[in-house]
Amino acid sequence: MADMMPISYSTDAYTAEQGQRPRQVESEHSRRFRMSVASGQRLPHRHPTVDIFPMRELQEMKPAKLREIEQMPGHTPRPADRPEHPLRWDEECLRYTSQTKRNFILGIIRLAGIFGLGMILFAGIGMSIIFLLMSLSNNQFGLSDHLLLWKEVFYISFFCLMAWWGVNAVYRLFPNFASSFQPGPMWELNRRTGMVTIFANPAKKSTAWQVAHQLPFHEFDCYLQSTPSHQGLPQFNLSLVHYREEAHVALVGMFGATSSHVEQRAAWDMVQRYMDTSQPLPDTPLWEEFRPLDPTTLVHDQRTGRPPRYWRDMDDETFQQKVLEHQDKLNAFYRG
Q1: How many CB atoms lie within 10 A of CB 240?
Q2: Sorting pLDDT into bands at 50, 70 and 90, what band is 100?
Q3: Does residue 80 form part of some domain?
Q4: Which of 99, 201, 264, 297 has the most crowded CB, counting CB atoms within 10 A?
């Protein structure tokens, strides 16, 4: 049975006060490094940290989904493979890795099949209507033309369906082959130790888990970066950069790129709150089952009387109201 005792913080665990310390050593960043990962607006280190989080934390983890996860066979906050798993989100650390190239390619094939099927059916119906109207006006298009059109539609639709269903079959029959992550993590933010670990090359088993950098969280700055989308609209993402060494964490993998800068600012404030051991864990649905396993959070919840299943037992109507209230909270906090 898994140990359910709260974790113990190391002596170097991060608190918001550390983020306010002056830095004595100058940056050693090259111009190329600054332009690529340390550009954009540097976001503030909060003291104290705030209990705030992006909207996606509510939109992606509704109470019904939390209860469904709880009912999965063998579910526990501390599974046996947790220490070696390259992807984690719990009371001890945030650890991230990306999907394998194989999984990415299969996803593209499935998406192309779904999109292609919709487009060809739409085009086929549209062309049939056009042929029908033209045949009524000048009799240049007859039944043979319609049959030829739908023969082509059938062949293309069949190909798209095979791509879609074929990839689904691969995922269902060979899940370990298809839905896999890289052998090792790309980075880790550890609440227990206060350290940021950046791994060398997670794509190969021979180099997975090799550490390239391991540095204190309070020595990192977060930059809000903006890049144009295909439509020319700004897309915002976060880059966590060590103030001196050329070491950085691309948070875009975990938090994505968004058209709203508010979502990214809230994500950075959530990360700061998560790492701050003087404060409880962010009060989000996904972290709820880990709250009794973190000592600061456990004491806070006992003192305030917070229900241990506050999010998981919430009804849909109340949850939707909380979603609206949190959106208002974000707008008021970041937009004034």
Answers
A1: 22
A2: low
A3: yes
A4: 264
Instruction: Retrieve residue 234's tokens.
Output: 């700004």
Domain containing residue 134: 101-178
**Residue keyed to tokens 């945030």:** 94
Residues of the chain above pLDDT 70, percent:
92
State phi, psi for 81 to the nearest 5 degrees.
Answer: -90, 10
Per-residue pLDDT, averaged over 280-306, amounts to 97
200 and 296 together in one domain: yes
DSSP conformation class of 201: -
Picking from 178, 209, 232, the residue at the C-terminal end of a domain is 178
Instruction: Report the alpha-carbon distance of residue 112 to residue 334 in Å, rounded.
Output: 38
**Do 224 and 93 share a domain, yes or no?**
yes
Is residue 196 within 8 A of residue 275, CB to CB? The reply is no
Do 109 and 66 lie in a common domain?
no
Residues 37 and 33: their CA atoms lie apart, in Å, by 6
- When divided into structural domains, the chain yields a total of 2
**pLDDT for residue 284:** 96
Whole-number Å distance between alpha carbons of 219 and 242: 6
d(CA 153, CA 12): 64
Q: Say if residue 161's pLDDT is above 80.
A: yes
With a cut of 70, say whether residue 280 has pLDDT above it: yes
